[in-house]
Design brief:
The chain has 125 residues and is mainly β. The chain contains one helix and eight strands. It starts with 7 loop residues before the first strand and ends with a strand. The mean pLDDT is 93.
């Protein structure tokens, strides 16, 4: 990990309040390892130079963790890619515009549902 650029951060997202989880759920979320710019947004240039290092771990109660890569489509939309093909991809809603700062919210489209996650922490790896 010491070879990663200084812009890389470990970002922890936890499920925010929603129907079925009125208090949210700190055991349901994502760990991202990704480069952030000075405004704490995803940095496309650093991502492009370090694609293989941009990892995602999805954790949920009662399920095995899923490990994937943070990817970017032509046009700028971000998504999580777990394995070859697009059947298991999860799209972020405007992730390129979101600020990854503790307390902020981001949305990720998981299968057929959109879920909102709160940024719990942002730290150097």
């Amino acid at each position: 990990m010491s070879t990663l650029p200084r812009s890389f951060r470990h970002v922890r997202l936890v499920l925010a309040r929603e129907k079925g989880a009125p208090q949210g759920d700190s055991h349901n979320g994502y760990d991202l390892l990704a480069p952030l710019d000075e405004e704490n947004r995803l940095d496309p240039a650093e991502w492009k130079a370090n694609r293989a290092a941009c990892r995602v771990r999805r954790f949920q109660p009662g399920q095995a963790d899923m490990i994937g890569l943070l990817r970017r489509k032509p046009g700028g939309s971000w998504f999580i890619d777990y394995k070859d093909g697009d059947d298991d991809d999860e799209a972020g809603y405007r992730l390129g515009e979101e600020r990854f700062v503790a307390g902020e919210y981001v949305s990720i489209h998981d299968g057929d549902q959109m879920h909102t996650y709160q940024v719990l922490s942002v730290n150097r790896p």
